[in-house]
From TrEMBL:
Residues 131-334 form the O-methyltransferase C-terminal domain. Pfam families: Dimerisation, Methyltransf_2. Keywords: Methyltransferase, S-adenosyl-L-methionine, Transferase. The keyword Protein transport does not apply. One of its GO terms (molecular function) is protein dimerization activity. This is Caffeic acid 3-O-methyltransferase. The lineage of its organism: Eukaryota, Viridiplantae, Streptophyta, Embryophyta, Tracheophyta.
Length: 354
């Protein structure tokens, strides 16, 4: 068949029309713990769907054929490798580098809780209302369904709160390893504040590399820090970043500014500036939107999360360009912004200098 035929518009629209099968299948394999069953502490031996089911404690009605259908789809998206017997009688599956990110490491961390967090029922109910964010941006689709914003909703539901913290740890720890290998901007810092630091993982990792940091302040919502583990040298402080931020000689923040409107961002940046001495800096790791729209994996990952934000967190919270961050920083007391694109493909390290 001609390549142009394979990529025909009909095929493309059929793929787009049923694309929801992909994240829902991903959610299914995570719920069924398939990545952990295949990974088996690093063996990653190819297993058939029947072998996967027999390694778990699912009921006798568990259906290998249906599991295999899901595994085949996810193989086509690069999550599993498929190994077919020479006579074609049996298909077995191992994890690709992508799939390995779903298997728990020795500390129990992986991207699996992030998948579950994004596809829990409360989130799924908001997705059919994306168009409402266009018609009336004063309410997020999530708020239309639940009557309140996600963070206050999580705050009333301990399980969701815990899942959010696990999701953040699973996604943030691998990023932080790469970040700390490639970035050395914490030299000489003695008091570091992490704004929106969740369970304190990022701060713990920074402080284990930079011994000059004598005090770490993990600042997050009261209901989040109440559940955060005790970490030597780290004080958990509950509060609202829109009101005030504890003082430090540098501030770190990651995956935060995107969830807020421009006015709220200016307020948060101003609160950061007020908490810093002259010459102090805010080190913000945020997704940075390229000006040009293309079909690269990076652009797609960034643009997809942008719609997630619009639907769940803030209709006018968004991924911003370098220019947009520069303007917000200027308005909030940071005359200089230095972006570093080379550490990670998803997060850019933005140094706001006071
Ligand atoms: C996307 S998570 C990022 C967590 C962490 N920085 C990381 O990258 O792993 C956003 C964090 O902001 C916190 N947060 C939300 N609203 C807040 C507020 N008004 N004041 C302080 N923290 C807040 C949430 O509880 C959550 O831990």
């Amino acid at each position: 068949m001609e390549r142009s035929q394979i990529n025909s518009p009909t095929l493309a629209i059929m793929e787009l029309a049923n694309l929801i099968s992909v994240p829902m299948s991903l959610n299914a394999v995570v719920k069924l713990k398939v990545p952990d069953i295949i990974w088996q502490d690093g063996s990653n031996n190819p297993l058939s769907a029947a072998e996967i089911l027999s390694a778990a404690t699912f009921g006798p009605s568990a259906d290998a054929e249906n599991l295999q259908r899901i595994l085949r789809l996810l193989t086509s998206y690069g999550v599993f490798n498929e190994h077919i017997e020479e006579d074609g009688s049996e298909r077995r599956y191992s994890l690709t580098e992508v799939g390995k990110a779903l298997a728990a490491d020795e500390k129990g961390l992986s991207y699996a809780p992030y998948i579950l967090q994004h596809h829990q029922d409360a989130m799924m109910l908001a997705w059919p209302l994306v168009h409402e964010a266009v018609l009336d941006p004063s309410f997020e689709p999530f708020v239309k369904v639940h009557g309140e914003r996600p963070y206050s909703y999580y705050g009333k539901n301990p399980q969701m709160n815990l899942l959010m913290q696990k999701a953040m740890s699973g996604a943030s720890v691998p990023f932080m390893k790469a970040f700390l290998d490639g970035y050395d901007g914490f030299q000489g810092v003695e008091t570091l504040v992490d704004v929106g630091g969740s369970g304190g993982d990022c701060l713990r990792m920074i402080m284990s590399k930079y011994k000059s940091i004598k005090k770490g302040v993990n600042f997050d919502l009261a209901e989040v820090v109440e559940k955060a583990p005790q970490i030597p040298g780290i004080e958990h402080v509950g509060g609202d970043m829109l009101k005030s931020i504890p003082p430090g000689d540098a501030i770190f923040t990651k995956w935060i500014l995107l969830s807020w409107t421009d006015d709220e961002c200016k307020q948060i940046l101003k609160n950061c500036s007020d908490a810093l001495p002259l010459g102090g800096k805010l080190i913000a790791c945020e997704p940075l939107l390229p000006n040009h729209t293309d079909d690269s994996r990076r652009s797609r990952a960034l643009l997809q999360e942008d719609i997630f934000l619009m639907t769940m967190y803030r209709t006018k919270g968004k991924h911003r360009t370098e220019m947009e961050y520069r303007e917000l920083g200027l308005a909030a007391g940071f005359p200089n912004l230095k972006p570093n694109f080379h550490i990670d493909h998803f997060f850019t390290v933005l140094e706001f200098q006071k």
